[in-house]
Amino acid sequence: MRLPWAVALLALLAGRYWWWRLTSTLVLDDWLSTSMSVLVLLAETWLLAHSFLQLAFSLAPDPRIAPRAERAAARVQRRLEPAGSVSVPLPWVDVLIPTFGEPLELVERCLRGCLALTYPRAEVWLLDDAARPELQELCRRLGCRYSSRAGREHAKAGNLNHVLPLLQGELIAVFDADVVPLNTFLLRSVGLFDEPRVALVQSPQTYMSADPVIRNLRLERWLMPDEESFYRWIEPVRQGVGAVVCAGTSFLVRRSALLAVGGFDTGTSSEDLATGIRLTAAGGECVYLPEKLSAGLAPFTASALVRQRCRWASGTLQTLRTGASPLRIAGLTPLQRLAFLEGILHWFNALPQLLLALMPLMIGVLGVLPLQITAAGLLRYALPFFGAQLLLARWFSNQARTGLLPELYRWIVLIPLVATICRWALQRPLRFQVTPKALAIAGRQAADPRLWLPLLVLLLLQLLALLNLFGWAQDPTGPALAPVTPASLALGVSWSLINALLLLLALRCCWDRPRRSALPWFAVREPACLDGQPVLLRAISEEGVELALAPAARQAGQVALPLAGPASLLQLTWGQECWPLQLAACRGHRLGALWSGLSPRQQRTLQQRLYRQSGLWPHRRAPFEPLALLAVLGRLLSPIPPDDWFRRSLVPIQLTAPARSQRLVPPRAYPTAELAV
Question: Fewer CB atoms inside 10 A, N or C side of the chain?
């Protein structure tokens, strides 16, 4: 959301705050205090400069891509009408699915989704870097092309480049093996290539399952995925400056433009970013289409999430040492060069963030005072600036994030990211690793000590700092190297308390909720009938459903469904069709049941409704943060049950929503929280 007045307000408040920090808060009593004080100020300055560079990009003219996309989609629809209306044929599209070791059923779901694309001129290719005979047989059975190669040189980029000489289509679509496109993906995106300058069209990467931070704390209602702010704030802003980032999946690229830059970039594991930079530098336009046209799986475990982020960081930083570096590549405008460089250098934010996180420890553990402030300074300079940041976070991110809760992601990945940056500096970057898509479900999985041990050490240090700070409250001239003012003491205590709370939550996230199935479950609210009795369909997956007695029946005095027993066979009437079920769980007016003996046609219909129909993935709105913080505190103090009947981690979908609904929906519109009770 472009808010010039908000940018101007924040810039004014930030300038006042920084000048106050520079002229009134530095501690210059001795060399240790001086060095720490200047270091903390430099860390703040780096983060301020980075955040305001992003805000400055938002002042670029809005390219208004939505009307342009609508006109392009209308042209495609006209060309699909009976012969004679339009003479220009639709372009041929090769759909590529690179895979390496993903489960067979997951790859099959992706293949079926790509084969079901509502587009007459497309061919689906499975690019198997593991050369598995079962995948080759699957392709033969489904009627799509299969490709494998002898080695795995250059990982995903090499896999994609290997098949390029065999392709004949004008356009290439790429999906990761866990992603399922909506039927309308090509209908909504292909028309943009009628403009010869368009080289790439990127759509948002949406998740059909909650990530470990959300799932392990049961925050499906209260916390938006971290990627939402990238696709609803960063990418639209980059569109305005002509520096759209290719995300590696759910995109279309013009084959001739790709071949002109030498194919997918192999100099870094982030081949998507580097290839997008090369296409832009070659004069092509990379377009961001802000419609949720596909969805994939979030990492299953906290360890997998951290590994994914570190791989992104390592590959992105590697770009600086390749020919696609924004510092050296020819053809970019100064603004594009700056935008791409900002996107790469933002990974370095982990270093000043770690330093600022340790600031209370400087006072409470080392006895070093890095800044000296007064209550008047806090009220006049600091609180207006940070308060405005918190209040405007939702507006800037197009309702995708709030101010404090997303910090959970930063704490979990902070130490591993710092280690990744150090490896890159020593020219020992991480090698490409596929994010695990298989779930080990035999009992509770042990948390990775590489995740929780650094967090535990930081938490203990924060608690030690708090004890010392409370001690100095009794004797402000005690062991500190400089007298501690009440305002400085209050800042250190509050800062340390917030850090301790976030560290506790981050530690909680390291232990993954046990779950029986890797299949995603979705929150819905659909009327249905069960053996002739009205019910509400509240959760659904390929595995089964969760139902509740309809409100009218509850008001009539029925508190439970009349069932014969835990293995009862039932008939669910939903969508003008009968679906066989077997009862698996019952609690009061709610029951859980598994599909029993679905026909092949019903299985295809179910997959269509769950993964592929138009308008499926809603644009949710971040909740009011004070209420969310109360919910988070409740999660911290209460046990987290396994992911099972009536306590599932659910992602909302719109089974009956109109196509291309872009309405921002408040979280209360979904029954996720009710089902998690």
Answer: C
